[in-house]
Amino acid sequence: MRPAWARGRYLYATRGCVDCHGANGAGRRFIDDDGMRVAGPNLTTGPGGVTMGYTPADWERTLRHGVKPDGTPLLIMPSQDYNRLTDEDVGALVAYIRSMPQARGGPAEMQLPLPVRVLYGLGQIPDAASRIDHTLAPEAPVPAGRTVAHGRYLAAMCIGCHGEQLQGGRIPGAPPSWPEAANLADASGPMASRYGDAATFARMMRSGQRPDGSTIAVMPFESLRELTDDDLAALHSYLTRHGTQVASSGGR
């Protein structure tokens, strides 16, 4: 198995791509709530695919900057989560997507209630492009392992819902019925009170349930459960350390 292709398949399976575009890349509806219907588009070169003709620059703008090839911002697409991917990981992810068998699908579906459309129009709901620092250079590669440094790299995939500093709150553009994202930067919050050890954290990420058996809503567990034991341990290591650092800096 080619290393880059295998890495791309792993990234596709674990970084939320499956939740919005389906395991076969043909697209799927992932929000159908409170009058909102949102579906990710077909990424394959099959009928209805939206990436046919994409250049390397188009992939770069879409993944890292939240901007379509025509220059308009993407809505819902969490490019802020992918902005910090290394060049190697972007290349591997694109290579895997481009290798997917052709499948029949369609363009993105975006049916939004009038109040949500108005808020988008007024800029009250920020799109990914407006939340990204486009001047940042790509991340330098970090050796994989159960380390805080590798966990920090992995935690970038949490930004779209939990915020740049992982301090939680309302998820931009989410249906009103969705709960707020948890504050992962609170040293006395859920990471410390519920998931003090990596094994408990891993069970939650794979089951979608808290230690008390209650179900966690919204999180993309279809992807998260595919993370390796090493990646889950690294992520836990960073999140528990991150909360302590934020507390010691007064939340700055």
DSSP helix fraction: 40-55%
* Helix and strand pattern: HHEEHHHEHHHHHHHH
Beta fraction: under 5%
- Rg, Å, rounded: 18 Å
Distance between the termini: 44 Å
Principal-axis shape equals globular
Q: Mean pLDDT, nearest integer? A: 89
- Order of strands across the biggest sheet? 1-2-3
Structural class: mainly alpha
Oligomer: single chain
What can you see in these coordinates?
- There is one protein chain.
- With 252 residues, the chain is mainly alpha-helical.
- The protein has 13 helices and 3 strands; from the N terminus they run ααββαααβαααααααα.
- The protein has helices spanning 3-14, 17-21, 56-65, 79-82, 87-99, 114-121, 128-131, 148-155, 159-162, 190-193, 198-207, 221-224, 229-248; strands spanning 29-33, 36-39, 109-111.
- The chain has a 3-stranded antiparallel β-sheet with strand order 1-2-3.
- β1 and β2 (36-39) form a beta hairpin.
- α8 crosses α13 (229-248).
- The longest helix is centred in the last third of the chain and has 20 residues, at 229-248.
- The radius of gyration is 18 Å and the shape is globular.
- The mean pLDDT is 89.
